[in-house]
Amino acid sequence: MPAVRKTRAHSIDDRARRAAAACARLVRTMDTLRSRYGCPWDREQTPETLRPFLLEETYEALDAIDRGDLDGLCGELGDVLFQCVFQSQIAAESGRFDLADAMRSVTEKLVRHHPHVFAASGRPLTKAQRGRRQARTSGAVVEQWERLKAGEQAAHGQKKRVLAGVPRALPALLRAHEIGTRVAAVGFDWPDATGVVDKIDEEVRELRAAVGESPARAADELGDLLFSIANLARKLGLEPEAALRAANDKFTARFDALQASFDREGRSVHDATTGEMEAAWQRVKTTSASRSGSSSARSSSAPARRGRRSRR
Q1: Which residues contact 151 (CB under 8 A, 6 or more apart)?
Q2: What is the pTM of this model?
Q3: Among 132, 112, 136, 134, which residue's Cα sits nearest to residue 122?
């Protein structure tokens, strides 16, 4: 994408000036839209009515990342930023806070949560100062974050709760992953992935027994199983949401191929027997596995993607 490559040629000071000018223009545009001379729809919005748009734009940005679409990502991140500006504009109108306050808040938090990078003033540490800091690995940094957040909670009169701040609005699988990450940072974890697999086997046995008891009991055990699977993903350095999205895409592609095979025969899947569909499914899987094997052989030297953890 030309615009992205262009920004790399600019110095950090130049990029900061360009970002400030673009941000100021966006804030002025948003203020006009909310004014009496602006847009009726924009004037009617509240933080609650905008909530689904913030979520939708975030998912569209994630979709662009998954596709490796940098051109699309540029626009999608702009849409996410617009939602942040929109929410901040509404808050500013009621005298609560504005975009500058939100940006200042996150910048100060970044400085506080990275004492191995910044001094309290916000200036980057010198080489000698960095050498005296203990957080030299990503694991040590995660543990440091948890200690710092606990300290901030205590400073605000809140009880130190490891799981405080994990949003309930997160997708359930992602929330389970984050919960496991938080408690693992204080040592409450399986020693390795094998222990989680054993736990999954246990949960499967309990689910089998619960299925014959009641829907409520089955739901409880199914939740335990999904929670354990999310923790296995974490131990393997994978994101369960990403893994499930890939599985959804794979299943969709294979079922589309199955349906296409019946279409070529002038038949409908609605008229096929279970046995016929199973046979077609196995043929599709075999063909898919063969293609995947060829693709894997060509890309065997590609580096594996590392899992990501929510840092805030």
Answers
A1: none
A2: 0.61
A3: 112
Tokens for 159, please give them. 């009880």
Amino acid at 301: S
Within 10 angstroms of residue 57's Cβ, the number of other Cβ atoms is: 19
DSSP per-residue string spanning 134-187: S--SHHHHHHHHHHHHHHHHHHTT----TTTT--TTS-HHHHHHHHHHHHHTTT
The beta-carbon contacts of 97-105 under 8 Å, at least 24 apart in sequence, are: 99/23, 99/27
Give CA–CA dist 172/223, Å, rounded.
Answer: 10
Q: Which are the contacts of 234, defined by CB distance < 8 A and separation ≥ 6?
A: 177, 180, 181, 184, 240, 307
Strands annotated E in the chain: none
At residue 119, the pLDDT reads 87
Which CA distances in Å does 21 have to 15, 26, 105? 10, 9, 20
Whole-number mean pLDDT of the chain?
86
Helix H or strand E segment including 42: helix 40-44
